[in-house]
Design brief:
The protein is of the alpha/beta class. The chain is 41% helix and 15% strand.
């Protein structure tokens, strides 16, 4: 009798809590219908694909909260949109107390608490949570738990595997790496929808992880395009103020003439022209991490420096390497030790609006991204192609999905092969009959699908409960045939 007297109020209390939770979730869903949280457990300004998601969502009527570290300036379109709000996360200050496992554990706990507080308290109710992976630890678990509490659907955008990146530093068999792999595989299956960047990754997720994903290839945004010559000149003048590689060292006969090493502007008409005998502009961008071996480029530049110029008509080179990252200081020291005569190297950090202008002004792009998993593609090449900039890229497993050898660029395996390609491409530069010009012409004539159109065709129907007629059958997700299953995942998804 006494047990029944205790059990009945407890049961009623439990039912009341469930009713309150259900009512709260219904209220959240009602208020969340047109709001999406886009979560980046990294620098928002250096996460272009997630910025593109936010812009596309905003253009199609959603209100967006972009959640991440606010270390670098995002695109102007993000800052100017009245439908996008940026909610900054705080990074835990580095400390060197105790073993590295303990330091990592403290960081994870700090991020769990911060993400929970941000998503439950500071961010408006969301119909969807778009999450970039990697980094997915602890974000995947936190976002899934928040989704369960608030009725939000979790969408994971797989750019790579976090455990494979950890493996570059610790080795593939390290305990932390194995735990990270188990974590990604377990929690990744609980999402409502998975997007990924290559067909190779989609197949790997299906075969080895039990996760059905939809391929959304990176596409260039509309502002990645060829830069008009007058804007090129303005950019070069701006960069010459802080980087000697862009300055003209010759004495000016006409003090009214504004000149850089690449361009000059007539003081009377204002017309801009390329300078005769100008150097070639080679651009590479990087996050300065272990999955990009810049010693390959240094070897190629050293060999290019040693090439005889007689009969080859080879230009001098200005090599611009953009980006931030942990290995930048290491390579800066190596570059400073070189005694180049025909090669100038500079390593600027560009403002968001200047980066597309630089790519649209360059003669050749170089990509050294190898991919820790071998399953993702370098977005920098996508941006270069958007600017009709031919590319030389280091070979890895699924690169063929993006770079077509001898069509829009060249693929190399080491520094010697890259040096040979530089010699061939820049021979008699800027000869309009050369292969470099032909690659650019191929890019100009190709109908490149831009991000907005691609996103509208593939992603938008998935989040508006309309299965896209245009989605390739090879990407069709199981469990989507019935209308009552749309917008939900199957048990193994």
């Amino acid at each position: 009798m006494a047990a029944s007297a205790v059990a009945l109020p407890a049961l009623l209390l439990l039912l009341l809590l469930l009713l309150l939770l259900g009512g709260w979730k219904r209220w959240r869903r009602r208020h969340a219908a047109r709001h999406v949280a886009v979560v980046v457990l990294g620098d928002v300004g250096r996460s272009p694909r997630m910025q593109y998601h936010a812009l596309s969502l905003a253009k199609h009527g959603f209100f967006v909260t972009l959640l991440g570290f606010y270390n670098s300036k995002p695109y102007d379109e993000i800052l100017q949109s009245n439908r996008i709000q940026i909610e900054g996360l705080r990074e835990l200050p580095r400390f060197a107390v105790g073993p590295r496992v303990l330091q990592y554990g403290v960081k994870v706990v700090f991020q769990v608490v911060q993400l929970l507080y941000a998503l439950l308290v500071k961010v408006a109710p969301s119909a969807y949570i778009f999450l970039q992976n990697p980094p997915g630890l602890p974000a995947i678990a936190v976002c899934w738990c928040v989704g369960c509490l608030c009725g939000s659907k979790l969408v994971i955008d797989w750019h790579n595997y976090g455990y494979s990146i950890m493996g570059l530093e610790h080795g593939p068999n390290h305990l932390l790496v194995q735990l990270a792999k188990w974590y990604e595989k377990l929690w990744g299956r609980l999402s409502h929808l998975n997007l990924c960047v290559t067909n190779a990754m989609r197949e790997d997720l299906a075969e080895n992880w039990g996760i059905k994903a939809v391929t959304v290839h990176d596409k260039p945004a509309s502002f990645f395009k060829e830069t008009p010559l007058d804007l090129q000149h303005q950019l070069f003048v701006k960069l010459a103020q802080t980087h000697a590689a862009f300055r003209d060292s010759a004495e000016l006969a006409d003090p009214g003439l504004e000149r850089t090493i690449f361009t000059e502007q007539d003081p009377w008409s204002g017309a801009v022209a390329h300078r005769p005998g100008r150097p070639a502009l080679l651009v590479s961008s990087t996050s300065w991490t272990e999955d990009e071996d810049f010693s390959i480029l240094l070897v190629a530049l050293e060999k290019f420096e040693q090439l005889p110029t007689d009969g080859e008509n080879l230009p001098s080179l200005v090599c611009v390497i953009t980006g931030k990252g942990p290995l930048k200081d290491h390579y800066s020291r190596l570059i400073s030790q070189q005694c180049f005569q025909r090669v100038r190297v500079c390593m600027p950090w560009l403002e968001a609006e200047d980066y597309p202008l630089l790519l649209g002004s360059a003669d050749l792009g170089v990509c050294l991204h190898k991919s820790s998993s071998g399953l993702d593609l370098p977005m920098k090449v996508v941006d270069m192609f958007g600017c009709c900039l031919p590319v030389c890229a280091v070979h890895f497993k699924c690169l063929h999905e993006l770079v077509k050898h001898e069509e829009n660029g060249l693929v190399f395996k080491d520094g010697e092969e890259l040096a040979t390609q530089l010699k061939m491409l820049f021979s008699k530069f800027p000869d309009p009959a050369g292969k470099l010009h032909q690659f650019r012409k191929n890019l100009q004539e190709s109908e490149q699908l831009r991000w907005d159109k691609s996103w509208e065709q593939i992603v938008l129907p998935l989040i508006t409960d309309r299965w896209p007629l245009c989605l390739p059958k090879s990407q069709a997700l199981p469990g989507r045939e019935d209308s009552d299953q749309r917008g939900r995942s199957n048990p193994g998804h």
